[in-house]
Design the sequence.
């Protein structure tokens, strides 16, 4: 089956959906309301499942070339003691790839570059979706109306289209935490590619990028809307006594580089990822906390699965039913696991509970920890002919 599609949202998930649909013969237009993503000054980790999806979309090799594998690192306490070590080589042997780190700006650039000229419309916001009647779906914007056989709602955690399609759903909720993050101005001599440090009610982590700079993030319990006049000074006061290289990472960061986002998630799962001839994808369908680093990877899985479904199905209702049946259980299970990981990380503040968690992590054998990671990373794309992905 072939047709025309309008993708609402030009982030990672929306661009991936456009690439996937084009690869199975669809004509696609992407609408992006912003000139640049508000997280373009950050970086992202991609696991094997996300990379495998990018391979299916034709950009996996380019993304790998612009990334850095995360082979050495792990989780520590604020005084520097190790709770768990990460063995990227073992992960690579198990699923074919280590986790890799890449700047979000570069990932967006590579995805955009794979689209033909004119397929991405910047500064265009979708305001309405009308799918009444037998004709095409009509996407109304401020200055134009676009017709399509299929609309993909990839407009993020605060999705306008989700609110129109599922008005009874409560929408995203604040997690009670915020993430502050930035990329250092210069390379740093760091021992490993990845570290995560869990304190009581706070978290600090970093990944190393191909040019030697690092992206760091700090998660703090904060009421939504909280902002600091001097974010770096605030972070130095909170994390300045934590182990190296955390103070050095903050010292290598320019004040204007710090991004501050309140964390939100779809705590109430959606009843469906497809409403009529509209497919919900990425954060619009399953916005999750960042604790497993799976938000973008799940959006990439969505894109590949949607493309396979429309390529194999005899009609659009069958394709979207298939997409929903395959993607919703997995994505919502990953979202639940991410929420639980957050409760064990920055969400844990009681000293006795923190001590118990730390003791349990030190005693846990490496095998079960690796298997827990593989549950999310070991994903296979849908097979030709409409068969489902291999269960992870």
Sequence:
């Amino acid at each position: 089956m072939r047709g025309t599609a309008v993708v609402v949202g030009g982030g990672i998930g929306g661009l991936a959906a456009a690439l996937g649909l084009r690869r199975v013969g669809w004509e696609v237009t992407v609408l992006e309301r912003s000139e640049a993503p508000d997280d373009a000054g950050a970086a992202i980790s991609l696991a094997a499942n996300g990379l495998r999806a990018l391979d299916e979309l034709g950009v996996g090799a380019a993304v790998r070339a612009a990334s850095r594998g995360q082979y050495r690192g792990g989780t520590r306490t604020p005084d520097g003691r190790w709770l768990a070590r990460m063995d990227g080589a073992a992960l690579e042997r198990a699923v074919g790839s280590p986790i890799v780190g890449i700047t979000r700006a570069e990932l967006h650039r590579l995805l955009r570059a794979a689209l033909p000229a004119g397929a991405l419309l910047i500064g265009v916001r979708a305001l309405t979706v009308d799918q009444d009647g037998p004709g095409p779906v009509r996407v109304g914007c401020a200055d134009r109306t676009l017709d399509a056989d299929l609309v993909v709602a990839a407009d993020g955690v605060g999705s306008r289209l989700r609110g129109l399609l599922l008005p009874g759903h409560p929408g995203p909720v604040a997690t009670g935490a915020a993430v502050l993050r930035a990329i250092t101005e210069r390379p740093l001599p760091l021992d490993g590619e990845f570290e995560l440090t869990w304190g009581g009610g706070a978290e600090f982590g970093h990944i190393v990028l191909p040019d030697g700079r690092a992206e760091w993030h700090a998660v703090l319990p904060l009421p939504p809307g909280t902002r600091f006049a001097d974010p770096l000074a605030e972070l130095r006061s909170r994390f300045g006594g934590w182990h190296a290289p955390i103070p050095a990472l903050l010292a290598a960061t320019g004040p204007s580089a710090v991004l501050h986002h309140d964390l939100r998630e779809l705590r109430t799962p959606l009843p469906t990822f497809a409403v009529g001839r509209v497919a919900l994808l990425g954060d619009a369908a399953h916005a999750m906390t960042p604790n497993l680093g799976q938000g973008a990877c799940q959006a990439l899985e969505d894109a590949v699965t949607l493309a396979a479904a429309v390529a194999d199905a005899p009609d659009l209702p069958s394709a979207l039913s298939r997409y929903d049946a395959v993607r919703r259980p997995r994505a919502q299970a990953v979202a639940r696991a991410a929420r639980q990981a957050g409760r064990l990380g920055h969400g844990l503040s009681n000293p006795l509970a923190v001590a118990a968690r730390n003791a349990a992590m030190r005693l846990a054998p490496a095998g079960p920890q690796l298997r827990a990671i593989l549950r999310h990373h070991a994903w296979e794309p849908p097979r030709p002919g409409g068969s489902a992905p291999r269960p992870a």
User: Anything to note?
Assistant: The radius of gyration is 21 Å.
